[in-house]
Design goal:
The strands form five sheets. A seven-stranded mixed β-sheet has the order 4-14-13-12-9-5-8, with helices on both faces. Strands 1-2-3-17 form a four-stranded mixed β-sheet. With 430 residues, the chain is α/β, with parallel strands linked by helices. A hairpin with a 4-residue loop joins strand 2 and strand 3. 38% of the residues lie in helices and 16% in strands. The chain has two domains: 170 residues, Aspartate Aminotransferase, domain 1, CATH 3.90.1150.10; 252 residues, Type I PLP-dependent aspartate aminotransferase-like (Major domain) (Aspartate Aminotransferase, domain 2, 3-Layer(aba) Sandwich), CATH 3.40.640. It binds pyridoxal-5'-phosphate.
């Protein structure tokens, strides 16, 4: 038995499925998960000492690569001053100022510890601010595992969604409407019939939890208009895309294409913590007035704005705000997708890939899917063979077809070339 197998067996005795977050268990792709011992720069080493080029980056946060010296120093220094006080600190203020500086739609933020918490709180705020109950989400978008968001579409537009998890009573999701991503007709119809009851529309503007699917520009624009007309709030879940696809997040990408566009509420996580448990939600000062202690919408957290986590996030944001950072990261990520595409072409395998900043996705399909059902119809078996072919060759991709990939500043041109070379080989037998 290998060390990874032994650890997995041991883990399964004391942790359900052997993991603390389901996708880590390799259920979608099969095989034994690698237990990671350490990471540095663009690489991770497992418990057996095998090195992998890491394209997960902790599912997005490690945009500078692992163990960036400036971040390490900030975290070590902060740790010496204390782990947690349960009282305000200057560093929280600095991090809030730093986030706001780069995201013009946000005037105030509240810091929390996970993307789930941030998304859940954003919805409570939207409901509290509007006095309405209904929320709209899209199939294939993930906004964390809050009860009201674990829901899939019902049989028709008029019917409510069904829970996607046991333990979520149907009554809890009765106010959640689930529509098809990029389907303009559906969102028009829902607003025409129920617009006055909708508190918010929540979206992953570039959906990274169904691999990589962009919300089409007219779709985003129209939702913005409908929200404004009907007094609903447009919530951009930028937990993945924030500070990842651009310094100003996906909203800055759309603002370039839709004059004057901005979401009402933004949700952040992943990169803003630099690998520590940290997330945030933010909006205008006016809407934030509804939040406790100023207003009646309750929200709190023992470890919120944690001093070590904020030090990590702040050091990360300072590095990525340096001139040229996203140009270099974006070009590198594009070269990876182009290389994979060429490798697939050489192997005669249908391939469609896309990227924005340091986030990418690819499908074994002839064109990029526009919604969840089409993503799910792409070639899963080939993806799984490819995943293992790459893993065997020292390249760690996300272990599921429906996840995005991430490139960091630490990935070198040689790392990209080695990845493409591995893909050429892996695709021959995939
Ligand atoms: C990861 C993610 C979340 C959940 O964040 P956690 O920190 O895992 O709770 C929410 N929304 C999006 C878009 C995400 O990618």
């Amino acid at each position: 038995m290998t060390t990874n197998q032994a650890l997995f067996e041991r883990a399964q005795r004391v942790i359900p499925g052997g993991v603390n977050s389901p996708v880590r268990a390799f259920r979608a792709v099969g095989g034994t998960p690698r237990f990671i011992a350490r990471a540095h720069g663009a690489y991770m080493w497992d418990a057996e000492g095998t090195r992998f080029i890491d394209y997960i980056g902790s599912w997005g946060p490690m945009i500078l690569g692992h163990g960036h010296p400036a971040v390490l120093e900030a975290v070590q220094k902060a740790a010496l001053d204390g782990f947690s006080f349960g009282a305000p600190t200057e560093r929280e203020v600095e991090l809030a100022e730093e986030i706001i500086k780069h995201v013009p739609s946000v005037e105030q933020v509240r810091l929390v510890s996970s993307g789930t918490e941030a998304g859940m709180s954003a919805i409570r705020l939207a409901r509290g601010a509007t006095g309405r109950s209904k929320i709209v989400k899209f199939e294939g978008c993930y906004h964390g595992h809050a009860d009201a968001l674990l829901v899939k579409a019902g049989s028709g537009l008029a019917t409510f969604g069904h829970p996607t998890s046991a333990g979520v009573p149907p009554e809890v999701v009765q106010h959640t409407l689930v529509l098809e991503y990029n389907n303009l007709a559906q969102i028009e119809e829902v607003f025409a019939t129920q617009g006055h009851e909708i508190a918010c529309v929540m979206i992953e503007p570039i959906a990274g939890n169904m691999n990589f699917v962009r919300a089409q520009v007219p779709f985003v624009q129209r939702i913005g208009e409908l929200c404004t007309q009907h007094g609903a709030l447009f919530v951009f879940d930028e937990v993945m895309t924030g500070f990842r696809v651009a310094l100003g997040g996906a909203q800055s990408v759309y603002a370039k294409l839709i004059p004057g566009f901005k979401p009402d509420i933004s949700v952040f996580g992943k990169v803003i913590g630099g690998g520590m448990p940290l997330a945030a939600f933010g909006t205008s000062r006016k809407i934030m007035q509804h939040l406790a202690p100023l207003g009646p919408v309750y929200q709190a957290g023992t470890l919120s704005g944690n001093p070590v986590a904020t030090a990590c996030g702040l050091a990360t944001l300072k590095e990525i705000a340096k001139p040229g950072f996203y140009e270099a990261l974006g070009a590198k990520t594009q070269s990876l997708v182009a290389g994979l595409s060429a490798a697939a072409k050489a192997a005669g395998v249908p391939f469609a890939g896309d990227s924005e900043g340091g986030m990418f996705g690819f499908f074994f399909a002839s064109e990029l899917p526009q919604n969840y059902n089409v993503v799910m119809a792409t070639d899963k078996e080939r993806f799984n063979r490819f995943f293992h072919g790459m893993l065997d060759r020292g390249v760690y991709l996300a272990p599921a077809l429906y996840e995005a990939g991430f490139v960091s500043a630490a990935h070198s041109a040689d790392d990209i070339a080695a990845t493409v070379a591995a893909a050429r080989e892996a695709l021959r037998s995939a």
